Amino acid sequence: HHYNLLLLLLLLLLLLLLLLLLLLLLLLLLLLLLLLLLLLHHHHHHFLLLLLLLLLLLLLLLLNEDSSSSSSSSSSCSSSGSSCSSSGSSGSSSNSSSK
Fold it and tell me: What segment(s) does the record annotate as region Disordered (predicted)?
């Protein structure tokens, strides 16, 4: 029973992390929209360029974290074939994307 509880807690943590990532992406999109509005109304180019650079850095960090987490999950999947076969949908989607 304790093992099942641990699995449920891990799944909940993963879902929370995914939700946090989605919220961060939404916040970044909102910031980009605000920047576009500022560009339309005002002409403070240096300030906006700095903000855009910061946003790009944040996006790059998020992408790096995403790629590292996905690569680690794929490596664990390849090391243990049973877990990989249990989640065939993700495998087929990655196969179609690679083609």
Answer: 67-99
